[in-house]
Design a protein that fits this description.
The protein has about 325 residues and is of the alpha/beta class. The protein has two domains: about 1-120 and about 285-334, Isopropylmalate Dehydrogenase (3-Layer(aba) Sandwich); about 125-275, Isopropylmalate Dehydrogenase, CATH 3.40.718.10. Helices cover about 45% and strands about 15% of the residues. The protein is built from twelve helices and eleven strands. The chain has helices at about 15-25, 40-45, 70-75, 80-90, 105-115, 150-170, 190-200, 225-250, 255-265, 265-275, 300-315, 320-334, and strands at about 1-5, 30-35, 55-60, 95-100, 125-130, 135-140, 175-180, 205-210, 220-225, 285, 290-295. An eleven-stranded mixed sheet has the order 3-2-1-4-11-10-5-6-9-7-8, with helices on both faces. Helix 4 packs parallel to helix 5 (about 105-115).
Length: about 325
Amino acid sequence: MKIAVDAMGGDNAPSAPVNGALQAIEKIADLEIILVGDHDRIMPLIQDSPRHTRLHIHHAPDVIGMGEAPVQAVRRKPDSSMVQAMKLVKTGKAAAVISAGNTGALMTAGLFILGRMTGIERPALSALLPVMNGWGLLLLDVGANLDPKPSQLVQYGIMGAYYCQEVYGIENPRVGLLNVGEEPRKGTPLIRETYERLQKSGLNFVGNIESRELMQGRADIVVSDGFSGNIALKLTEGLARDLMGEFKKLLMKNFKTKMAAYLLKDGLMDLKRRMDYQEYGGAPLLGLDQIVYKVHGASQEKAFYSAIQVAYNYCQKNTQTRLRERVREEEAHQ
C-alpha cells in the first residue's frame, strides 16, 4: 500500500513528516510512502535510511503557505506539494493523503481534485479531542463549513458514527450536538432544527452537549457548525497545553513538589499522553470521495507516524467503500 505524505506542509516540515514516515516504514512491513515535496530538501533526510527502498520522492517545487487564501493558492500552485499529493490519490498512485498544511487549502484541493462523496452535501473537517473517561471524542465540523444546513449536520453525525464504528470499534456510537444548553429548544434555528432531525435519524443521539461537557465523555461524536467547532477545538487545545505547562512548573518548584512528581510519575505520564494531540495523529476530512487526513500544523514526527498508522488501517479495512455504501443507504431512506 502506498500513502502520499505532504512533506512540505506544517511548521516543522520537512523534518517532521519525513521522520514520521521513516518510523511508519519501520513498523509497517507492507507500507510504501511517497514523500511529496522539494527533492533537494527531502533527500538528505532519507538517504541514510535502511528502508529507503520503500520511500519514494515525488518532486513538487512549490509550497502553499499557511496564510495563503485557499482557492487562489490551489489554483495558482498546481506544482505545490499538497496539490500533487492529491493528484497521486486521484490517479490511483496512492491510497491516501496526509498533510499538516493550510487547512482551508487542503479542503479546497480535496474538493477540486477528489470531489465529494456521492450523497454528501458538504465535507467536514474533524478533530480528535481527549476526554477524561473513554477513548476520545470526534468533533466535526471544526472549520470547513461555517454556515451549514441542518441536513449537513445530520450527515456529519452519520459519517462520524460510522467512522467511529469502523476505526475505533465502538458498536453504537453516541452522537451529541454542540449547543449553549441541554434543553431541546435552546440555540439558534439551525441548532433547533438539527436537534429534531437527529432525533429522527436512527443515530444514537444523546442530545445537546455544552462546551464544558466536551471532555467528560458524554458522547463519542459531537456535531457542530464549523465556526463554533473551531472555537471549541482551539480552546480545548490551548487549555490542555497551558494547564499541563502550569502543572509542570508547579511540580518542579521545590524539593517537596519534585518528590511528589516522582511518586505520581506514572499517572502524570498517562495524563500527558491523553492530553497530547500528537498521540491522536490526524483526523479525516469526512465526505471527500477519497481518504485525506489533516495533521495539526505544529505536529512533530510522532503525530505524522500516528496519522500514517491510522490511515493505513483505514485503507486496509476498505472503510471508505463501506462508508460510501452507508451514505447511499441513508440517502435512500430520507
